[in-house]
Structures are given as C-alpha cells and as structure tokens.
C-alpha cells in the first residue's frame, strides 16, 4: 500500500480525473510545454508595446501624449485582466482551460493587428512627420486598432494569471526531488521570460521598423499558434489540481458578514468567536481591523439546521481563521499602494523615452538602431542586476548579516530609490536634449545628439525593477494566507496595472493644465516644443514623497511580521452572546 501511494500524487489528477501517476505525469517536460506559451506571450505583448508609440505617432499620426496614453492604457488593461483570468481559473475553468481559451484569444488579437497594419484602408494616408496637413486616423480605423489591442490584452491577462501556477502544478511539493525541481523552474521561468522580452525589443522591433509591422505582428500570431499546438500536445502528461474556490468570494463573504452584524457587540473573550478550522491550519486572532471580527459572531439564522450541526451560511458567519486571512490581505494594502508609483515611472520607459530616442542620433556606423530597441538596455539592466545580486551581494550580505540577501521590504525600498534617481537623471538628459533642439531646429526629427545619453535612465529604472519586482513577488506570496497565494499574486500584478493608469491620468492632467493658455505645454504634440524635463522632474518629486510614505508603511508593517504567540482556540463547543451552546 505504501509503495502504491508513492506512485501517485495525492492532490493531483490526470486528464481523465484519476489520481495522477507520478511516472506518467508532471515533471520537466510538461512544465517546458507550458513555458513555451509564456515565452510567446512575452514576445507578442512586449514586442507590440515597446514600439507601439512610434506606430501611433508615425503611422496613425496621433499626438505624443495621446500615443503615450494609448500604450499605458493597453499595458494597464493587460495586468488588470489578470484578476479576471485568476477568478475564472479558480472558480470555473481551471488553469488548463483558462490557458487554452486565452491563448487562442491572444492569437486572434495579434492576427487582427497584423491585418490592420497591412490594409491601407485601416490607416490614414502617409505624410511627413509633424506635417500640418497630416490626417489623424479616423474613428473606424482607431476602433479596429483598439479591438485588436484589447483582444491581446484580454489574452495576456488570462495567460499571466495561470501559466506560472499551472507550471508549478507539475511538481509535487511533498516530494523532495520534485520540490527542488520546482525551485529551478521558477528561475528558468524568469530567465526565459527575459529571453522572450529581449527577442521582442531587438529582433521583433527591428523587423517592425525595417521590414514591416504586419510581418512582425504576423510572426507573433504564428508563434502563439505553434505554442498552442505544443501546449495541447502535453494534455495527457499534465497534472491537474482541484479548484478550492475563489479567494475573492471568500473575502466578500467576510466583509458581507461583518457589515450584516455591524450593530452587534464583540464578545469579551475571543474564544467565543466561531471557529471550525482544523487546529493545524488555524490562524490565531489578532487585534487589528476588529470590525471584521464581527463576521465570526454567531447569531440566529447563521446555521441552516442547528440540531444537526450543519455548515453555517458563509455569507452570514465566517470562522476566525477566514477573518484573519482577510486581515492578512488588508495589511498588505499600504505596501501595495506605495509601489504603484514605481510602475508609473516604468511606463515612461516604453512611451516618452522611446519618443525621445526617435528624435536623436541612433547610428552606429551604417546601422540605425530602432528607437524601440533602446529598451534592450532596460532588460539588460534587469539581468545584470539579478546576476550581481545573486552572485555578489547575497554571499556578502550573508557573511556580514547572517541573512540570505535583503528582505522583501528592503528590496522594494531599493527599487523605489533607484527609480526616483532614474527620473532625476532623465530630467537632466531631457534638458540637454531640448537645449540641442533649441540651438539647431525644434522641427528636426534627427537631432545631433547621441541616443546613448538615455542609457543611464534605462539602466537605473531597469535595476530598480529587478529589485522591486522580486521584492513585491516575495512579499505578496510569503505574507499572504496559504489559501490566497493566487489572489495575492493578482494583487501584486494590479500595482503594474494601476501604475500604467496613473501615468495616463497624469499625462492627461498635465497636458490640460500646462496648455490651458493656448501654448504647447509640457507635453506638446512634438516633444521638441514641450518641456518633458518638467514632467520627469514632477515624477522624481512624486517618487521622493512616495518613498517617505513607503518607509512609514514598512515600519508600521514590521511588528506584524512576527505576531506574539497566542493560545490556540481549543473548544469545540462555544457560546454565542446569549450563552447558548452551539456547534
């Protein structure tokens, strides 16, 4: 019997719904098939996003601020829809079906984008840059472009929410050998994502600029299609996990129960609150957010049948452990809120920084660097920073402090500092670029100043992402309840989404306020006539303010990292406020 157990994975099923055979399912090969989908998703999404601003300005003839907002809204929606994908995977479809459905949607989106960029009827007539007679894309043309972009965003959101989780499902955490393989999977997962991004910002962007956008977008669509067939080929070898329900529903249940009982008084003894979680899985009561404790007060009507000790209605009564899980998520929110501004800074690297590059000298001999490919320095900074941190900083820190590297909160702080400094450096670089534009000709689209002036800002913000991304992921996973890891990952991804949306909001406000007197304003249609340096300077100031707030929140959070031990809730029979014995 013991040997039979070792051949199956206890909490996993095969494609027929039977317990998964360890020798026939899971492991590296199925994980690699899943990884192929994510590589192609990165290739498509980043290959489109990093060079989209030049397409909107150069082909669709849109103003620079409008182009930047379209890009940031697109990227923001990609990450926001991760919540939808996660909810569908947890509650209805499961991860396998979610990946399959949303991969097909992304393939359709990239295919449609290839068609819209190819057909002359779906773009305005060509003209010289900044020509006053240029016609902007009309409503129908923009509508078709939006449809393609948001199909891609929908596909990306659904994929990102499930790919990493389905990949880890292929390894058994209870088996030491497979657990070590899972650790390597995470490392290689991030590595291959970076490879996909590097390919996107170099090869794919070059094809877009020098050969044709429709061909480049067509390559994205075909690569996704091939990845889907490869993904389906592993159907019989995958391990499938049972869904435990959506954490979002659990959170709403606690909130609804607490609101329903808002007028009730909490008992003097917390052990009188309802608890039905097994002892080994319980989370002990804490004093923060005491309003939520009211969800665990037993009241008349909470049980369908008191005489048979039936399960309580979860929208009326929740266990202490379920309430504490929601409290744990609530404690993450201040850190969550203070990391949004970083991704607002990040958004400038794929919008205005690319526009800056398009006006500068990008020649190396006879080779012209595509403006969108400048983000290669951004990706390189991430990889270099991770390598230095892993091989140099972590060993030294362990020898000095006895700890294996910086804590998650420390890494987030370092990322915020680097991004703020990066915006300061970007301000100085833009001041230099504008002085050259003023001395030569503001209408010039090729200023005599090297594009490599922008490298420091790409490197600083890229290094900041290396710290803040890993710090956020570590923080939100390790500090969240066991049953809400997927939810906390989705919460982390919403910081990226909101960062892009905040960027769009700031651009719109700055555009309206600074051009209210009929002038060009900070964000002029032609950035040579604007004051992008002032906008970057504003982001640097906001970064400093945000950093101070973050440090306050981080200090506030520290006491909750190691809560004082409290006596376990032991009694199976407890009492409600009237002294009646209950189940």
**H-E order:** HEEHHHHHHEHHHHEEEHHEHHHEE
The CATH class designation of the largest domain is: Mainly Alpha
The count of domains is: 3
Work out the strand percent.
under 5%
By DSSP, the count of extended strands is 9
Task: Give the N-to-C terminal Cα separation.
Answer: 36 Å
Q: Output the CATH homologous superfamily of the largest domain.
A: MFS general substrate transporter like domains
Average pLDDT score: 82
Low-confidence stretches: 1-5, 559-583
Overall outline: globular
Describe the largest sheet.
Answer: 3 strands, antiparallel
Count up the helices.
16
CA radius of gyration? 27 Å
Structural class: mainly alpha
- Per CATH, which architecture of the largest domain? Up-down Bundle
Subcellular location: Membrane
Organism: Sesamum indicum (Oriental sesame)
InterPro entries: MFS_trans_sf, POT_fam, PTR2_symporter_CS
Pfam family, one: PTR2
Structural features, described:
It is a multi-pass membrane protein. One of its GO terms (cellular component) is membrane. This is Protein NRT1/ PTR FAMILY 6.2. It is found in: Membrane. It is a single chain. The protein has 3 domains: 1-243, MFS general substrate transporter like domains (Growth Hormone, Chain: A, Up-down Bundle), CATH 1.20.1250.20; 247-329, no CATH class; 338-565, Up-down Bundle (Growth Hormone, Chain: A), CATH 1.20.1250.20. It is globular, with a radius of gyration of 27 Å. With 583 residues, it is mainly α. Mean pLDDT is 82; it is low at 1-5 and 559-583. The strands form 4 sheets. A 3-stranded antiparallel sheet has the order 2-1-3. Strands 4-7 form a two-stranded parallel ribbon. Helices cover 62% and strands 4% of the residues.
